[in-house]
Specification:
There is one protein chain. With 108 residues, the protein is α+β, with helices and mostly antiparallel strands. 19% of the residues are buried. GO terms for molecular function: structural constituent of ribosome. This is Large ribosomal subunit protein uL30m. Belongs to the universal ribosomal protein uL30 family.
């Protein structure tokens, strides 16, 4: 599931001192004002995340480009990173033996 689908519904409602902003839609084809806003937020490439303080100025910028970004609180961001780390963690190797075990049952 993409970051857009997973986190667009979970817009932060609780107050958080930091906001994690991820650009999930491409910049080409957007309005110049929106491109300048994303540039001011330091979002230049898709799927990049930046951390900004939760201030009225930043929230106004996010309101302007809300269809291009996903906003997460610190708890949501840490939970997503932990889930990704668990998914990428090393798993025990799968051992497949193609040679049948020798049987000690010699009836002849």
């Amino acid at each position: 599931m993409s970051a857009f689908n997973a986190f667009k519904a979970n817009v932060p409602v609780a107050w958080s001192p930091n906001l994690y902003i991820t650009l999930v839609r491409g910049i080409p084809g957007t309005r110049r004002l929106h491109r300048r806003t994303l540039e001011a937020l330091r979002l230049t490439k898709c799927n990049r995340t930046v951390m900004r303080w939760n201030t009225p100025t930043v929230r106004g910028m996010l309101q302007q480009v809300k269809r291009l970004v996903v906003v997460e609180t610190e708890e949501m961001y840490n939970a997503r990173k932990q889930k990704d780390a668990n998914h990428r963690a090393l798993r025990p190797p799968l051992v497949v033996n193609h040679h049948p075990a020798p049987t000690s049952d010699a009836s002849a």
